[in-house]
Write a structure and sequence with these properties.
With 314 residues, this protein is of the alpha/beta class. It is 36% helix and 15% strand. The chain is built from 11 helices and 7 strands. Strands 1-2-3-4-5-6-7 form a 7-stranded parallel β-sheet, sandwiched between helices. It binds iron/sulfur cluster. Iron/sulfur cluster (SF4) binds next to loops.
Length: 314
């Protein structure tokens, strides 16, 4: 059976989305351009979000201090050796807040990345309070003939949670940024963490309505992971009762409840992921790779005869 996103997978997958857009496999290459974050340097806050440990998600070639072209070339070599399938690449600016700099610096970095052979577009991770009209107009110009996505860390639709994890912006700020981005024809993504302290399963399922109300292209979810060296790791040691963690099968079941309510046109980039065990200060699922997580989700969707958007009401 074909679902409305055009294939027989039970959710609107990121790989299917790129196949439709580019006609083949596209690989994201993480790049660290040396940006910082206003929630760390004192501009909007200090100490950062309580869960933040950028290192846990950054490939080693990004930490070498090499320039953007060098990192992209290293990334292409690494992925060609490992996967041998992609010949189109997206430069993925993942670490910290990648629009937190004056416009001329952004232009220099992103124009250079797009000039690397094989790079067909950009994915730019940032905070919702780090964009303005001028910057978005620049990205909109790039997006006329290249793939450009801006991915916002939203993390939760609940302001009390955002305050508790020291995000230093509220959900309305995220909504404004998403609307301003999408209205310019830029692909717009959002990241959410499932399981932040104080959020029940019901709240997580119910916040799907708020997610559906945003003009997003892609969504990415992660289960809460607590990393060494973060304020959250200290809080967890002092107040473990504030935290809850799912066993993997239970997480998949709660995620399926979210998926059943999720707008069918929203592309699901990720529903869970495991950072390397050495970073963890809390419980983990062990060494489970993203492909295994996806296979488990697909098996469970099949068993439950469930699919994305089956309960979605416009
Ligand atoms: S999660 Fe993002 S916004 Fe929060 S401290 Fe880390 S880099 Fe900054």
């Amino acid at each position: 059976m074909k679902y409305e996103w055009g294939d027989d997978r039970r959710f609107n997958s990121y790989s299917g989305y790129f196949r439709r857009l580019f006609g083949g496999r596209v690989q994201k290459l993480a790049v660290n351009a040396g940006f910082t974050c206003p929630n760390r340097d004192g501009t909007v806050g200090q100490g950062g979000c309580t869960f933040c440990n950028n290192e846990a998600f950054t490939p080693s070639y990004c930490m070498s201090g090499g320039d953007v072209e060098w990192q992209l070339a290293e990334g292409i070599v690494f992925h060609r050796r490992r996967y041998r399938r992609a010949d189109m690449y997206l430069a993925y600016f993942q670490s910290f807040s990648n629009t937190y700099a004056p416009l001329d610096r952004l232009m220099e970095i992103y124009d250079r990345a797009l000039a690397v052979p094989g790079v067909v577009g950009l994915v730019i991770g940032t905070r919702p309070d780090c964009v303005d009209d001028e910057k978005l107009d620049y990205f909109a110009r790039l997006a006329r003939d290249r793939y450009v996505a801006i991915e916002y860390g939203i993390e939760s639709c609940h302001d009390a949670t955002l305050r508790a994890v020291n995000r230093r912006h509220d959900f309305e700020c995220a909504r404004r940024a998403v609307e301003a981005t999408a209205s310019r024809g830029i692909h717009t993504g959002a990241h959410f963490i499932l399981g932040l302290p104080g959020e029940s399963d019901r709240m997580l399922v119910d916040q799907t309505d708020a997610i559906n109300s945003l003009p997003l292209t892609t969504v990415k979810f992660h289960q809460l992971q607590i990393f060494e060296g973060t304020p959250m790791a200290e809080d967890y040691r002092r107040n473990p009762e504030k935290y809850r963690f799912w066993e993997l099968p239970d997480y998949i079941d709660i995620y399926i409840e979210i998926l059943r309510r999720l707008r069918p046109d929203l592309v699901v980039e990720r529903f869970a992921s495991e950072a390397p065990p050495r970073y963890h200060a809390g419980p983990t699922w062990g060494l489970v790779r993203n492909e295994q997580l996806l296979a488990m989700l697909e098996r469970r969707l099949e068993e439950r005869d469930a699919w994305q958007g089956e309960l979605y009401m416009p």
